[in-house]
Design a protein that fits this description.
The chain has 239 residues and is of the alpha/beta class. The protein contains eight helices and eleven strands. 36% of the residues are buried. The structure holds magnesium ion.
Length: 239
């Protein structure tokens, strides 16, 4: 199916593991096998160290925060070294105002905790139910994403200086432009002299507003996965 593949890049949550759950031994063994034939790379939405910990310190280079953070695996130290850590300033007053307007417009005026969550990188989360909402309420809010997909274009239009994603169970995640997974993977390929055609990306969040969508819609080779338990099946041909 594919030829001349040099690099396999992965999403983590929902792709290699269940959300926020450690990498299983079975999937680790598959990554070990793949690493004998290909360069492997993580392209995540979270921080590099979070990804590294969740993978039980698996030896792999990691791109975090949609490309804002980069880490290289150091085999001597058996640890990752952060090689880039970009921070983009956030105009909190302006973000707050725009989110208040969206809440008003769509009737999301009841929320628990804060209306907006700010991350040290400059990424922003719009948690529709608030930062302190109960986990069960969050899970029940929009399981098929329909509520958020309906207003996605409007949220995007309100935040032209961000890439907006339908994130988690009841929120929108935003990364400052130009950061998204496509930007991150393209930059990595350029720096390592790897062509898009020599790269395969595997991720579960390729639908509208998903954080893998930018790669899915691009010229990179893409293997979709809808259940992380299918990971062995999805990569079988590559081993
Ligand atoms: Mg995912």
């Amino acid at each position: 199916m594919f030829s001349n593949i040099k690099l396999i890049a992965f999403d983590l949550d929902g792709t290699l593991t269940q959300h926020k759950t450690p990498l299983s031994n079975q999937h680790k063994e598959i990554l070990d096998m793949l690493s004998k034939k290909y360069k492997l790379l993580m392209v995540g939405a979270g921080m590099c160290h979070r990804i590294f910990n969740q993978m039980n310190n698996f030896p792999i280079d990691i791109i975090g925060n949609y490309g804002m953070q980069e880490a290289v695996y150091d085999s001597k130290k058996e640890d990752i070294a952060i090689t880039a850590n970009n921070v983009v300033p956030c105009d909190k007053a302006s973000v707050e105002k725009r989110i208040a307007k969206l809440r008003q417009k769509y009737g999301f005026t009841n929320f628990t905790g804060d209306s907006v969550e700010y991350h040290s990188s400059g990424c922003v989360t719009f948690p529709i139910l608030g930062t302190k909402a109960a986990p069960e309420d969050k899970l029940a809010f929009d399981p098929n994403r329909k509520k958020r997909c309906k207003i996605y274009e409007d949220v995007k239009a309100a935040f032209p200086e961000y890439n907006v994603f339908v994130g988690g169970s009841s929120s929108f995640d935003m990364s400052p432009m130009p950061y998204n997974k496509y930007f991150a993977l393209d930059k990595y390929c350029k720096e390592h002299n790897i062509l898009h055609s020599e790269t395969i990306y595997i991720g579960d969040d390729y639908g509208q507003g998903g954080n893998d969508e930018s790669i899915y819609l691009s010229d990179f080779n893409y293997l979709t996965i809808d259940n992380y338990e299918d990971f062995p099946k999805v990569v079988k041909e590559l081993i």
